[in-house]
Amino acid sequence: MMTAFILIETQVGTSPSVVSKLKATPEVKTAHRVMGPFDVVVMAEVADVDTLGRFINDKIHKLPGVTRTATCIAVNG
Q1: How many Å separate Cα 39 from the centre of its chain?
Q2: Neighbours of 67 (CB within 10 A)
Q3: pLDDT 10s digit of each residue in the chain, 77 long?
Q4: Strand ranges (DSSP E) for 1-77?
């Protein structure tokens, strides 16, 4: 398994809905609304990089209100 932190920018007023929908997704371990250059931070666990790519494209980018993402893959050490 690999862990990734996904930073999500949303349209104004849509972050509560984005967080709610992501929390119902099996890959998502935590999802929080945050202040700063991004609106939502998600910690997800997936099998590999290919699965991560599909998760981001199929389950995050397609959510209404999501405008941009940045992904940080956790490394050991």
Answers
A1: 10
A2: 11
A3: 999 999 999 999 999 999 999 999 999 999 999 999 999 999 999 999 999 999 999 999 999 999 999 999 999 85
A4: 2-10, 28-33, 40-46, 66-73
Structural domain harbouring 30: 2-73
| Contact present, 29 and 44 (Cβ < 8 Å) | yes
Whole-model pTM? 0.94
Exposure string for 17-39, b = 16+ CB within 10 A, e = fewer: ebbebbeeeebbeebeeeeeebb
Is residue 43 within 8 A of residue 75, CB to CB? The reply is no
